[in-house]
Amino acid sequence: MYGLGGRRWTVKIQAYIDDIIILNSNRVSLAKKTLEIVQFLKNLGWRLSPTKCRLIPSKKFQYLGWSWNTNTMEVTLPQQQRRLLKTKLRDWIEITKQQQIVGVKQVASLIGELNFLRFQFKQISLYMNVLNTFKSKAAVKGSWNCQVQLNKRILPNLYKLLELIKLNKPMELTVRTPFVILTTDASEIGWGGLLQINNGELMDADEWNGNWHLKSSNQREIAAVLMSLRAFSPILQQTNVDCLLLQTDNSTTEFCLWNWRPAKALVHIARIIFQLSENLNVSLVTEHIKGIHNNKADALSRMAHHGDYSISFPALNQAISVLQLVPTIDLFASRTMKRCQRYCSPQQDRRAVRRNAMSFSWTGERPLIHCPIEMIPRVLNKINRDQIEALLILPQWCIYKFKQLLPKITSQIDLGPSQLVLEPGPKMKVLELKLPPGNIIALRVTS
Q1: With 0-12 CB in 10 A as exposed, 13-18 as middle and 19+ as buried, what is 311?
Q2: Hey, is 7 helix, strand or coil?
Q3: Looking at residue 297, what is its pLDDT?
């Protein structure tokens, strides 16, 4: 800042209307420069209020209605304002319990005061949805001067807002830089997530089960974010990740999780995502990417979970040659896709040894196991239970996903990308399903 005569003050000044804050790293220099600036402003005709001005340098101060702490780089709600808001919310809770009649302008005034807290509490919009809807409907039916009866449906939100103000969790001013990337995608049949961490990639995917009632693509996309965070939460905790870059090709999901202001249909899932990120102590940074750059997550979400594909003969022969294990039976096959003379089929087949591979003991066999991904946990448990040696074919990312269940791996071979190793079945082409992304691994396992 420059003064009269071209003098330069080596300070930084932040001004908002008539509120001025002067910043400098040196306490002594700041005190001296502050007095010079005050005198300079008085010479210009400014009138300063002695009761409101603070001319002694401090690392803790109040500015624009917030308490700032430059030692910890945090912002909190001042005690006096916090006390007033708690009293006001308790009063609103009591009159809501009694379902009293209030003016629409009073509701709008409460919403305005709570919206001010969004600077510190980013998640406050997640609990303002019901209040905003209640105010808007009342204003449309009547007018801004009408009276409305309070509904008890807003009570849970009022209690949650009161809890946030009581805790007064500080907001960090330091900007975290994400070094871990989570890419998600969803389809009508399932979801997929790709985690890029420590110069490696982890994948996970699953189908939507009957507990999910997702009626739109936006709901599916934001639910895919939730499921991916749940799937990768152990690795995020183990590696102490504090900032995560979330990539999605859905602009609505990116907007909702960027400023935490979701639509009514998405607010419930957004609340769960925020609570999960708080428990993991991970801040989310969102980024929208084009669909053509989201190939792997898209393939995971549209993956053929029921295994309508088979390993090619050249890849199988390579695995048998390297692992030195000749299988005696193909446990998960059909008449047209079998890779051994003896096989088990999931359908009625008079040429198959058994109809259901899980219905008999595998003891004494050296099976070829290339099962649907959804059946891998059951298969691994049966290998350990029957104490056999087997040739196991599965995507590379499944090794991390099911590492707790995997038996002892004697040897293994990377067969290459799934597009070169696997042969899609006829139903995959009709249903427009995709092969599991990533490389395919052949394992020689023994219990």
Answers
A1: buried
A2: coil
A3: 95
User: What digits encode the pLDDT tens for the residues 54-109?
Assistant: 888 888 888 888 999 988 899 999 999 999 999 999 999 999 999 999 998 999 99
Q: Helices (H) and strands (E) in the chain — how many of each?
A: 14, 20
Tell which residue, 362, 251, 371, has the closest CA to residue 306: 371
Q: What is the pLDDT of residue 23?
A: 85
How is 194-261 classified by DSSP, letter by letter?
EEEETTEEEEEEEE--TT----SHHHHHHHHHHHHHHHHHHHHHHTT--EEEEEES-HHHHHHHHHT-
Task: Say what the pLDDT of residue 6 is.
Answer: 46
d(CA 241, CA 202): 15
- Locate the domains of the chain by residue range: 4-57, 79-172, 180-301, 309-446
Q: What is the pLDDT of residue 237?
A: 94
List, for the chain, all residue ranges whose pLDDT scores fall below the cut of 70: 1-8
271 Cβ partners below 8 Å, 6+ apart?
Answer: 123, 126
Domain 309-446: assigned CATH number: 3.40.50.150
H-helix or E-strand spanning residue 192:
strand 190-197
Hey, what long-range contacts does 17-26 have (CB within 8 A, 24 or more apart)?
A: 19/63, 19/64, 21/61, 21/63, 24/57
Beta strands in 26-135 (DSSP E): 60-63, 66-69, 74-76, 101-103
| 383's tokens | 């290998």
Q: Assign 44 to helix, strand or coil.
A: coil
- Chosen CATH of 180-301 out of 3.90.600.10, 3.40.50.2300, 3.30.360.10, 3.30.420.10: 3.30.420.10
Half-sphere exposure of residue 272, counting CA atoms within 13 Å on the CB side?
Answer: 12
Q: Which residue has the tokens 């004697």?
A: 410
What is residue 137's predicted lDDT score, i.e. its pLDDT?
85
Write out pLDDT tens, residues 146-175: 888 888 889 999 999 999 999 999 999 888
Nearest to 129, CA basis, from 114, 119, 143: 114
How many angstroms separate the CA atoms of 36 and 53, rounded?
Answer: 14
pLDDT at 183: 97
